[in-house]
Amino acid sequence: MDLLEEQIRIRNATVKNREMIVEGQKVKWAYRSELVGRHGLDNNHRNTWMAYLVIILVGFGAFVVVKSQVVMGRRQEMDAREALRKELQLSGDDRKKVAVV
User: Domain of 4?
Assistant: First the structure.
């Protein structure tokens, strides 16, 4: 039982109840940020931004993969052309005529 009472006391210690007296009536109030944090009102907003972050990271990762595959493919084609040129022992303008299709 003491554990439950301790948890309630800790929870209530973080919640600040501000009171003012307006025309003889006691009015409780809190800052907007405290209410938003206490009731989790910004969770949907945070989840939306997290979704954007995930989409951006996945898109960037896909871009890196595709770009590296394109560069590696071009490099392999260049190596194949160079090997063909060496095999045929071409030089000068004849080197430009050889292309792998």
Answer: 1-41
